[in-house]
């Protein structure tokens, strides 16, 4: 029988050199650098391109499972995550957490006992996160622990300060595992890409630039996780009903999970949730959680490279960002005394305002139209604004322009480029437009019918949802055509109440993926 001292003295270094991938990331013959480390959370690490792995090397069962975990990272994880981060579909934090869950799911499938993956820090982590009230970190930490033995201890720590959070977090763990099982079954039937696939999306062997197909599943689930982690977007009409549902279901959830989320032998387990001063409802209601759905691998799309060109701005347009006087019903000197008789609001005073400018982005695909008169009307409605249009039907990696600046700084072009037929860069163009704001209060107006697509692709919920979230975050206003956009800019200039409008494409996607309606 092997003694503990003999197990400690053994040097069982993994051999990732034997692993083969379909993207060519481990094809070059070279010895990996293996650095022994403690069997503790955060110490093991795998870097595919530098060929470096940190892993425990002793002959304990926990060490063996951790080595299997790191070897699976070497087998399936992207060689370079920068390409995935730059896509902007999901956050880096979300993808890291879901990748941990995927790797644990895959090593469990080949026979390793992932229930022993715990290091007794989960309880403290749960208590620390719940004490701070950090819902976002709680969601990501739950995903990273999903499938591991430390989940129950983590939820015990959560219940010390936020008892109402535990049922939601446990359900997130269950839904994540359910989605991984669904993908795995679909792949076995030939209906989906395998979770561990490292074939590149383009077929080219370039691990530093190409996207591996199996990781599209991670990206899709991570995007869903990001939605759960952020403060939920609530419709004004449904907010009260959802709060009532949350309060009604809370008692049932706590009773159902109370026995599951306590740690055996923990002296504080009988008093879990005793700190009632921290018993706050989670930001995510039960109904919202069940309504949120991850996009599927088939919904994965990509945008073309954004290439910006400023047209020759030869025509002067009156107006700018300077100050101007407008009528007001408050002030010191009645400069407009005649308004006492002619103005229903009796605005006999003056006040100075600054032109906000703004940015107007126009979808110039085959389903939209644009001419010189449209650009002039926009710039007259919002003096000093920037006007741009975009269109492409290819990925444009050769630098061919697909976004044109038609007006800026009080000048506009007289030459409107020809449409290239497709959309291709909707979200990159939207991000560019937001970055062009002259000041924090400058409006961003997007003229589009909502039919956002990547080059050579059909309409995909994943790409549409990315655009929707950016519009919500940056308060982008959408209109269907230039005429409506001009009317909107005039209303903004007159400081009238502004009403949101969403294309049918966006309303349908948001309802399908989140179970909620976009507010107007």
What do these coordinates show?
The chain has 520 residues and is α/β, with parallel strands linked by helices. It folds into 4 domains: 1-76, no CATH class; 81-299, no CATH class; 308-321 and 356-514, Rossmann fold (3-Layer(aba) Sandwich), CATH 3.40.50; 329-354, no CATH class. Helices cover 39% and strands 10% of the residues. It contains 17 helices and 13 strands. The strands form 3 sheets. Strands 4, 5, 8, 9, 10, 11, 12 and 13 form an 8-stranded mixed β-sheet that branches. A 3-stranded mixed β-sheet has the order 1-3-2. Helix 4 (92-109) packs parallel to helix 6 and helix 6 crosses helix 8 (165-188). The radius of gyration is 28 Å and the shape is elongated. It starts with a helix and ends in a 6-residue tail after the last helix. Mean pLDDT is 85; it is low at 233-279.
Topology:
Elements: H1 4-9, E1 33-36, E2 45-47, E3 52-55, H2 61-76, H3 82-87, H4 92-109, H5 122-132, H6 135-145, H7 151-161, H8 165-188, H9 214-229, H10 239-257, H11 286-291, E4 308-310, E5 315-316, E6 323-328, H12 339-342, E7 349-354, E8 359-363, H13 372-381, E9 386-390, E10 403-408, E11 411-412, H14 426-435, E12 444-447, H15 461-474, E13 477-479, H16 482-493, H17 504-514
Parallel strand pairs: 1-3, 4-10, 8-9, 8-12, 12-13
Antiparallel strand pairs: 2-3, 5-11, 6-7, 9-10, 10-11
Helix pairs in contact: 2-4, 4-6, 4-9, 5-7, 6-8, 6-9, 7-8, 8-10, 13-16, 14-15, 15-17
């Amino acid at each position: 029988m092997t003694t503990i001292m003999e197990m400690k003295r053994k040097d069982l270094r993994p051999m990732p050199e034997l692993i083969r991938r379909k993207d060519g990331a481990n094809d070059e013959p070279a010895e990996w650098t293996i650095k022994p480390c403690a069997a503790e959370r955060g110490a093991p690490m795998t870097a595919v391109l530098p060929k470096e792995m940190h892993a425990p090397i002793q002959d304990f069962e926990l060490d063996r499972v951790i080595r299997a975990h790191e070897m699976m990272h070497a087998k399936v994880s992207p060689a370079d995550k920068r390409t995935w981060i730059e896509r902007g579909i999901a956050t880096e934090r979300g993808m890291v957490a879901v990748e941990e869950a995927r790797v644990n799911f895959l090593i469990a499938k080949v026979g390793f006992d992932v229930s022993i993956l715990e290091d007794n820090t989960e309880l403290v982590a749960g208590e620390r996160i719940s004490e701070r009230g950090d819902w976002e970190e709680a969601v990501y930490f739950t995903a990273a622990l999903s499938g591991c033995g430390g989940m129950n201890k983590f939820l015990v720590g959560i219940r010390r300060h936020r008892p109402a959070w535990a049922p939601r977090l446990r359900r997130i763990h269950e839904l994540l595992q359910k989605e991984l099982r669904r993908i795995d079954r679909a792949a076995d039937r030939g209906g989906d890409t395998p979770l561990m696939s490292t074939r590149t999306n383009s077929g080219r062997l370039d691990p530093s630039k190409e996207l591996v197909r199996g990781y599209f599943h991670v990206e899709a689930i991570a995007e869903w996780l990001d939605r759960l982690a952020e403060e939920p977007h609530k419709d004004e009409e449904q907010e009260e009903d959802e709060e009532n549902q949350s309060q009604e279901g809370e008692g049932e959830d706590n009773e159902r999970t109370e026995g599951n989320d306590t740690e055996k032998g923990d002296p504080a387990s009988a008093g879990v949730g005793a700190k009632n001063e921290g018993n706050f409802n989670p930001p995510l209601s039960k109904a919202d959680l069940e309504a949120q759905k991850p996009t599927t691998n088939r919904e994965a799309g990509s945008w073309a490279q954004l290439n910006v060109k400023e047209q020759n701005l030869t025509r002067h347009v009156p107006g700018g960002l300077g100050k101007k006087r407008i009528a007001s019903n408050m002030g010191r000197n009645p400069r407009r005394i005649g308004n006492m008789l002619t103005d229903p609001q009796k605005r006999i005073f003056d006040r100075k305002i600054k032109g906000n400018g703004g940015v107007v982005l126009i979808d110039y695909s085959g389903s939209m139209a644009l001419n010189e008169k449209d650009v002039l009307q926009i710039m007259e409605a919002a003096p000093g604004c920037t006007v741009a249009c975009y269109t492409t039907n290819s990925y444009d990696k050769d630098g061919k322009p697909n976004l044109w600046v038609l007006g800026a700084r009080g000048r506009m072009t007289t030459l409107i480029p020809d449409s290239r037929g497709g959309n291709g860069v909707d979200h990159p163009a939207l991000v560019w437009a937001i970055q062009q704001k002259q000041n924090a209060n400058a409006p961003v107006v997007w003229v589009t019918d909502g039919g956002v697509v990547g080059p050579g692709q059909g309409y995909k919920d994943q790409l549409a949802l990315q655009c929707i979230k950016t519009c919500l975050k940056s308060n982008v206003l959408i209109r269907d055509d230039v005429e409506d956009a001009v009317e909107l800019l005039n209303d903004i200039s007159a400081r009238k109440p502004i009403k949101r409008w969403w294309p049918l494409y966006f309303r349908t996607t948001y309802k399908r993926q989140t179970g909620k309606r976009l507010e107007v």
